[in-house]
Each structure stands twice: as structure tokens, then as C-alpha cells.
Amino acid sequence: MLCDICKQNFATVHLTQIVCQETKKIDLCEACSKEKGVDDPTGFSIADLLLGLGATQEIDQSAGGKSLVCPHCGFKQSDFKKAGRLGCSECYQLFNEGLEALLKTMHKGTRHVGKVPQFYRQTQDLGEELQRLQKKLEKAISDEKFEVAAMLRDEVRNLRAQLKLTVA
Amino acid sequence: MSIDEFLSSPTRSSQRSGPHDRIVLSSRVRLARNLRQLPFPGFAKKHQRIAALQTIRPAVESLPVMADAFSATMDSLTNLNKQILVERHLISREHAAKTTGSGFVLNKEESLCVMINEEDHLRMQSLQPGLQIREAWQAVDQMDSALEKKLDYAYSPELGYLTACPTNLGTGIRVSAMLHLPALVLSEQINQIVQAVNKLGLAVRGLYGEGTEALGNVFQVSNQMTLGEAETDIVERLNKVLAQLIEHEENARATLLEKKTKTVFNHIGRAYGILANAHSISSKESMNLLSLMRLGFDLGLFLGVDRFLVDELFITTQPAHLQKKYSEKLTAEERDFLRADMMRERLSGVNRPNTEKFDTSGSQLDKPTE
What is the pLDDT of residues B80-126, one digit of tens each? Predict the structure, then answer.
């Protein structure tokens, strides 16, 4: 059996981990297990390892054979294979497609639920308010209540201006 | 002020107490955050790491909760001091290996600490004694909300907080508790329990991670998934599991005491015998035997002495803490001698386990397990 990482040496380290009833197995040679920190289990999780392996393939596929390079930090997809970590926050946009399937196996969902920084909370709230007002406006127009519609139109305009300010 | 002067003594540190601390040694909630503008630490150039440190460190230091905090760059700490911080569970082993461009800030109460440029730009954690993961979450949540006003976090509405490793994506939260489970180990139920906990999507690690037979019967339980579940839901889920684990451990202790009295007393008595009389002992053996003594304290076999003594020895017998007491560099063999000397001295005031109130006459043989 050959090592899953270098595919050259004979695998002597065999790891199995069961997460959410899914069995994940990985076979490594001595050198790769050392490099991946398997002998220092403090921060080690097989998910990280599997991540490095599976994700690279996914990302390769989604790139359609081209080699993607992050325009922000210069991170290449081959770097992901080595480190199992991304280069910068922008990398998530670039490798988004390739990561999707992986995130599905790793996490409960693929969309964030939970804490939102205040800055985003504000814009989120304004955005929702805007949608609500626009619906009201449409209804007012179709009901031919033009005075109300005129008021709503001004409110929408104000809100748009505010939203622009926050985003900028 | 140096970190030596700043850190509370092992004696004081082991006297912190919290709910259920018979079984739950400590609770911790960690958040991972990154700056939008700079590459993640693992991929950043040296000057970029320094830039991140120079942005983050003053922001953290300026928080009201960090008044009188200890703050240092990692290159200013000696390897021994870094190791001390690892043994106190204040920084990760990974962070201890960092030098230029990384930093560490710890509040006066040693309940909030921030690692700068570990795997992510910011790893902030709240530590509480006993079972207090809700409280730990609230404390770290507050610190994070104060910091987001000063720092430009990498965040996307779809993926949440963006982290170097996709395993931390979303909430960036790791909720964990350190549990002392000697009875579940002695009664050989631990593997089953670990498997069950794994099935719930939670990870179980040893004190320093060595497989499932953890050093000193100490296990760390934590969440694995960070995306698609809100922080409070993760905290509550872990809380439920921890409550169950506490119950299982308490049951296992009661059952052992009732049905395997001899076996349990034998283990505890031998642990005491070795610790109080050995002239050379390794750190690993110390931890495993101290764990049994801690169980003895919990079962009321060591009267008149405080359990904190065992917890203190848990800290002071670790390699770096031991080294710290002596100026010259010690070999592993010398450490084993000195560790045993210290143990004999500290346990000289502790009487051997008192089992009189339990009926342990020879006729009362241990019943086989059903």
C-alpha cells in the first residue's frame, strides 16, 4: 500500500476516524506522517489531512485543468495541496466552487449561521427594510394611492443613500 | 513585567474552582478571526506578519478587559517560558514554535488570552475553571464584538468568518472542555463513550492528544463543525453532551465503589504508595498516578488534605515547570529524580488512603461485572 500523500513510499501509518457515522481512512508513509504532524497529535485532525487531499482534486477539477492563482496574494492551487490551508480571505472566492463539496462533508451546512459583525448587521437590516418598502411602494402604485406612493418613494430614496454610505 | 512574575503560582492557579470541577477541569471557547487585507499567517511574508501583529496587538491591548494584561511578541519569550505557557494550556504547541511576527496577550485573571499570528491572525480564547462553557462563550463574544470595531475582519455573508483552514470556517468557534474520567477508564467504558461522542460530530482528544488512552485520564471534548450551526447552538449541544458525560462518570464511580471496591482501592493505594515513596518518576507515570489520587480525593479517601494539592502537582511536575525551579539545564533522568523528590516532599503530609469507613474485609470480594 502506497502513501496517500506522496504516492511513493510504503504506507506504515494508518489512521481511521469516525465523524458523524462516516468512516474516514488514510494511509501515510513515515516521512509524510511526520510532516503532517501525525506524531504530534495536539492539533491534528484527520479532517485536515483528508481536506488537503480531497480538496486539491476538487479544486483541480473545478479549474478545468487551468492552474488558478489568487490575484490578491499569489496563492496557487498547488500550495493548497502542500499546506491544506488557503492564502488569504480572497482565496475563498477563487476556490469557492472546488471547496463547496468539501465543506458539505466537513460541516453541518455550507452557509454561515450565527454571529454577524455589526457592520454587516446594519447593511443587512437596511437591505431588508429597503425590500419591504419597495413592496409597499409597488402595492401603493397598483392600488393607485399616489400620495402614499410618493412618500414611500422618498423613503426608499433616503434608505438607498444610507445603504450606499454604509457600504462605501 | 516578565511572564514569570505575571503568571499566578501553580498553587493559586490550581485553587480556582468552578461548577462540576470534580470532573470538568476547565472550559474553553476559542474564536478564529483574520484581517481582510493581509494574507493568512501561514502564507504571509515576514513583513506582512509583522504588519498584522502591529495592527492587532495595540487593538487587543487597548480593550478595557485587557487592562494590566501581559503582552509580548513571541520572539521575546524564551523557549522555556513558551513551554510553561503550553503546560498551562494558554497557548498551543504550534504557537510556541512561532517567533518574529507572532504575539501573545493574556489578561490579569488569566481568563482571556489572544494568540496573534498562530494559524489565523487572531485566535482569542476564554478559559474558565469547571463547567462554564456558556460563560466562556459570553466572555469571548464580548471581546470579539469590541475588537470588530477596531479591526477589519475577513467576513463573507455566505461563508461567515474566513479562516486559513476551511475546517474553522463560518463561526470560527472551538468549544471545548477538559474532563477527568478515571472511572470510565477503569471500568473500560471509555472507548464506547468516545465512539458515541464522535458520532455526535464531537472530537475527543487526550490532554496532549496521545490517542484515546489519555495521559492522566484527562480528555478534551470539542466541536468539529463550525459552518452552518450558530455559536449558541454549538455551545448548548456540547453542554448537553458534557452533562451526560458527567453523569456517566459519576455513575461509573458509584458502581466501581460498590462492586469493585477492592480493585479501586488497590489502584488508589498503589498510586499513593509510588508517588509518596518513589525516587525516580517520569512525567507520564506521575500524571497517571496523580489521576488515581485525584479519584481518591473525590471518593473521600484522603481526609484533611485538599484536592488542590493534586491539581498543583499536575502542573508542577510537568517538564518545563520542573525545569523552571532549577537554574541549570536538566536531563530527562535528572528531572525524574527531582520530580520524585518534590512529590515525596509534597505528599509527606498526606496520610495513606483511609478506607476504614468502607467494608473491605477479605470476605467482601469484588463482584464480577454483569
Answer: 999 999 999 999 888 999 999 999 999 999 999 999 999 999 999 99
Which residue, A45, A52, A13, is CA-closest to A29? A13
Residues 6+ apart with CB under 8 A from A164: none
Same domain for B164 and B285, yes or no, is: no
Distance from CA of A134 to the nearest CA of B (A): 23
CB spacing of A108 vs B141 below 8 angstroms: no
Mark the ranges of chain B whose per-residue pLDDT is less than 70. 207-213, 359-365, 367-370
- Look up the domain containing B267 and give its range: 260-346
Could you tell me the pTM of the whole model? 0.81
Same domain, B22 and B168: yes
Same domain, B246 and B325: no
Residue A163's alpha-carbon distances to A152, A156, B71, B100, B152, in angstroms, are 16, 10, 39, 41, 19
Nine-digit cell at A112?
454561515
Amino acid letter for position B117: N
What is the interface pTM, i.e. ipTM, of the complex? 0.81
B49 near B120, Cβ under 8 Å? no
- What range defines the domain where residue A109 resides? 53-114
What are φ and ψ of residue B166, in 5° steps? -60, -15
Q: Are residues B94 and B179 in the same domain?
A: yes
Q: Which residues of chain A have pLDDT under 70?
A: 17-24, 34-66, 165-168
DSSP symbol at B152: -
Length of chain A as a residue count? 168
Which A positions 31-90 lie with beta carbon below 8 A of chain B? 40-45, 47-48, 51, 55, 72-73, 75, 79, 83-89
Nearest to B167 among A51, A109, A117 (CB): A51
Question: Are A122 and A104 in a shared domain?
Answer: no
